[in-house]
Amino acid sequence: MSPFWLSLWVASIALVIVILSGLAVCYWMNRCKWGGIAILDALITLPLVLPPVVVGFALLMVFTPGYAFGAWLEAHGMSVVFAASGAVIASSVIAFPLFYQTVRSALQSVDHNMEDVARTLGASELRIFFTISVPLAWKGILTGSILAFCRAMGEFGATILIAGNIPRVTRTMPLAIYSYVEAGQYMDAFELVIYICVLTLALLSGIHLITKGSLFRHTDNN
Prior knowledge:
Mean pLDDT: 88
Distance between the termini: 42 Å
Low-confidence stretches: 218-222
Structural class: mainly alpha
Oligomer: single chain
């Protein structure tokens, strides 16, 4: 696969993982009464502020075949290190905190009176979440999804550690740009830079228009 299409494939798979897991975590965190939830929130957000190479090293330690979990995966015929699946996992982990923080903020801004009314009518917490909270927070969820997709598509540091820089296997656009620059092929690198900039700008402009200028504001839920 070319770096462009491989990047889109990796970012798309990562986005699906991030959305499904992110909504589940947000549902649990917004209803959790545990006193140490601030610590858990900080741990979830940690990959957003850590250098990506640190996250990549941690993933490498987890999935390397020489260690327990990596050995178990290898025994079951699954390979993560130096494979496209490694690029997907790295992109998912790096993009997850961005989606999580954006969506959780949007869910917290939802009118809780409507949720309370649904509870008095006997609706379950899960039904309230998917029929009231999520629809009212659609701007935040859409914004978080686009930002997570862009972040996943531009991931470099964690990907190069766990997935490597293998042409047609794990070489996404950021890795290809690095390789081209290292080889002195500046025009090829510039072409990929244009692709990333145009695609990212189009996505951000689209979400800005859809949310009517409220890219990072979720107080207007109509």
